[in-house]
Amino acid sequence: MTAAAAPRPFKILVVEDDAAIVRVLRLELEHEGYTVDIATDGLAGLEKALKEPDLVILDVMLPKMDGLEICTRVRAKSKVPIIMLTAKDRIPDRVSGLDLGADDYLTKPFSVEELLARVRARLRERHPQTNILNALDLTMDRDRHEVQRGGKAIALTAKEYALLEYLLLHRNKVHTRDELFNGVWGSDFLGDSNLIDVYIRYLRGKIDDGFDEKLIATVRGVGYTLRE
Question: pTM score, two decimals?
Answer without folding.
Answer: 0.56
